Amino acid sequence: MAWILGLTSGPHDSGACLLRDGALICAANEERFSRRKHDGCFPKRSIEYCLQSQNIAPNDISIVAHGWKFDGQDLTKRLAAEPVEVQKHMRWMAAKFRDVDLNVEARLRSGLQALGIPEARLQMYDHHSCHAAAAFFAWPARLTANCCDCCCVTLDGRGDYASGKIVNFCKKPAVLDVTSMFDSLGMLWAFVTASLGFKAFRHEGKLTGLAAHGDGSRTARIFETVMGLVEDGGLWRIRAFWQEEETKNFMLFLASLEGPSAERREVRTFALYQELQQHQPKDVAAGLQIFTEDLLLDYMRLNNFVKPYICVAGGVFANVRLNLRLRQRFQDVTQVFVYPNMGDAGLCFGAAALAASDAGQQVSCPKGSVFLGPDFSAELGDVLRPVSVFGGSEISHLEGFAEEVAAYLARGKVVGLYVGAMEFGPRALGNRSLLASATDPAINSDLNARLGRTEYMPFAPMTLRSFAGQAYSDFPVEDLEAGRHMTMCYEATPELKKMCPAVVHVDNTVRPQVVDERDGLAYHVLVHYEAKTGMHSLINTSFNMHEDPIVCTPKDAMHAFEKGACDVLAAFPFLIWMTMSAGDGASSGYVEEQKGKPDAK
Predict the structure, then answer these.
(1) Average pLDDT, stretch 414-440?
(2) CATH number, domain containing residue 100
(3) Within this chain, do residues 391 and 510 fall inside the same structural domain, yes or no?
């Protein structure tokens, strides 16, 4: 039996996965265990989970595959295209990021040594090749479709000196184009995010939501002056327009964030920031969104990269509106598959898949690519049974439990659904979710206030697949994978907008999770909710307070419940409605003003 341990060890979103004879068995990201958002440390806890879940030791690992090579493309050609003064700026930027990568590499090797895994077993793979491999090997249609009809597209901030790749897996991986990190669309988003007062490389999603409120025609031209397509070597390539004047190169700001605080440059000193400040934030976000969509679509079209199947990964594709345009724009596209853990957190699987493929193994995802985290079902009783005696109940029959949860939801309660294996990726998809009625638009403000969040998008819905065609006007009902992972936008029908206005954005788009029998308890809850109310959709948002990672353990769920994340904690077979005070243990005591049981009937 061959075990391959896939890793990504920073600089952010560390994680690990395990393949057994090519089959993806388990995976998790370090933030869920450390409780530090986007934790980029060596993923010791994630590795421990993977090994313990399969009852194996570090020495049983045949290959450790890492999703960052700490090397990358030859920069000589890209540098040579620029004047000498611009080359100086680029070399300074490359040196800054190289220092970061060297630290991560040292941490990786030290961590493996501490685990007793020989360095000879370490194989490192190119960052964007891993993004592409993750998307390709997780693509559900891979074993039935013609792989020559598939194009894998990656875009992010940077990795191994690149910010994007086009890869075809027809017979063996073939790289059709590489976008340099000096031409990074992801970094443009990070700079604009910082310019609008948010955290770069963290809050870009807020801009996607804000964009629908603005007029992009007022600002799109600004971005056309800093980036575009340039014909080079027979291809139209994404290029940032570097200038000799330092303050006209926005990426230098982002590189400066990696150095000592004394060397960091103020975003306000850059020309692009100053120009953006002349416009309303919503118009800036809208212009960036339009520019990004047009740039990518033109890039794909002009280079004939459009195939019937398009698989995408990399942080840029967390932008669900961009994914919608990619799906709608080209008539020849049958399916766009977005790898659910699209950011660097998912690199570990891409690396492991490449290692398995190189070893002649058939890569597979028998459990899918999401529900791969730890399952604490066996430990729930120890944590929640003492609490349920005083402030809850225990319902051992699944359908009875689901019906009771649905009754609470029908009464307008917010329910924290905690069940089974934790999701691997940024979306809560029913196993670590907060559910609520979507009939009142005011619920968005109420939930944001409850969770300490500030968002510009409505919450996403969970919708029964049997009703998806009625809810979304452009939903491909024949595609049983469509909408499963909350990575794609669809257009709302008038029926949905009237029935569930809380989940429809101002541009009439919705980012749903479409569920069926494969989705376990969440599906059964929604079936009973629809039977009680006639509503086929619920709000589904992640089970966590603002800036906390999604809950992992039963104690994490209890602590979020105690902070007010939900009215009822539904952790099969336990229903908890008594608010607890925070503490080291789940049953650490009651708050002075205890809530009684919410009326479910």
Answers:
(1) 98
(2) 3.30.420.40
(3) yes
Q: How many CB atoms lie within 10 A of CB 294?
A: 18
In terms of domains, do 136 and 111 share one? no
Asked if 437 and 513 sit in the same domain, the reply is yes
pLDDT in tens, 301-318: 999 999 999 999 999 999
Domain membership flag for residue 249:
yes
Gyration radius (Cα) of the chain, Å:
24
Q: Cα separation of 509 and 594, whole Å?
A: 40
Split into its structural domains, the chain has a count of 3
Instruction: Say if residue 517 is in the same domain as residue 501.
Output: yes
| Spatial contact of 352 and 17, defined as CB atoms under 8 Å apart | yes
Q: Kindly report, residue by residue over 162-191, the tens digit of the pLDDT.
A: 999 999 999 889 999 999 999 999 999 999
Q: Is the pTM of this model over 0.90?
A: yes
Omega before residue 340 within 30° of 0, cis: no
Length of the chain: 601
Contacts of 38 (CB under 8 A, 6+ apart): 12, 13, 31, 202
In this structure, are 233 and 361 located in the same domain? no
Coil, helix or strand at residue 71:
coil
pLDDT value at 598 more than 60: no
Listed residues 333, 368, 403: the one ending a domain: 368
pLDDT class for 589, splitting at 50, 70, 90?
A: very low
**Residues in Cβ contact with 321 at an 8 Å cutoff, skipping those fewer than 6 apart:** 208, 211, 212, 289, 293, 489, 507, 509
Does 430 lie in the same domain as 411?
Answer: yes
Geometric angle at alpha carbon 245, from 241 and 247, rounded to 5°: 85
- pLDDT higher than 60, residue 600: no
Q: Round to whole Å and give the CA distance between 130 and 154.
A: 9
- The pLDDT tens digits of the residues spanning 150-161 come to 999 999 999 999
pLDDT at 389: 81
Are 170 and 115 found together in one domain? no
Mean pLDDT, all residues of the chain:
94
CB 510 within 8 A of CB 492: yes
Distance CA 492, CA 292 (A): 23
Residue 74 belongs to some domain of the structure? yes
Domain carrying residue 283: 130-342
- Give Dmax (Cα) for the chain: 74
Q: Which helix (H) or strand (E) holds 309?
A: strand 309-313
Report the C-alpha gap between 495 and 502 in whole angstroms.
Answer: 13
Residue 354: other Cβ atoms inside 10 A? 26
Reply yes or no on whether the pLDDT at 285 is more than 90: yes
Tell whether 601 is covered by a domain.
no
What type of residue is 375? D
Query: Residue 588 has what pLDDT?
Result: 27
